[in-house]
Design a protein that fits this description.
Elements: E1 8-13, H1 29-33, E2 39-54, E3 57-71, H2 76-109
């Protein structure tokens, strides 16, 4: 089981397929784990920063972002772990890019 955090949420959405008669294979994995054929929105809200550059001056803005997976599979922990992994990857790339930009700016000044 996974723990719910304040900035994460799940909601279910019925779609057209939810109301159709099921004639599929009874051993189908999707049919076994999601017999009602609903869509699950697995979402996580996070604080992010947006950088702008005006007249050579950098400004950082704090913004709220929500990352979601819309899926037929009710594997919530998997999708939350994927979102966390994606956020960590983005953060790592941003830090690398930002430090390269600072290094380049310092090289220009010296």
């Amino acid at each position: 089981m996974f723990s719910h955090q304040r900035d994460s949420f799940i909601f279910m959405v019925k779609n057209e397929e939810s109301y159709l008669q099921d004639t599929g294979d009874p051993k189908d994995v999707l049919r076994m784990c999601n017999p009602n054929k609903v869509l699950y929105a697995v979402c996580m809200m996070t604080t992010d920063f947006y950088c702008t550059k005006v007249n050579g001056t950098r400004a950082f803005w704090e913004v709220q972002k929500i990352y979601c997976f819309l899926t037929k599979y009710p594997f919530m922990k998997l999708f939350f772990d994927l979102i966390i992994l994606l956020l960590a990857t983005v953060k790592k790339r941003r830090v690398t890019k930002y430090t390269q930009n600072i290094t380049n700016d310092m090289a220009i000044l010296s």
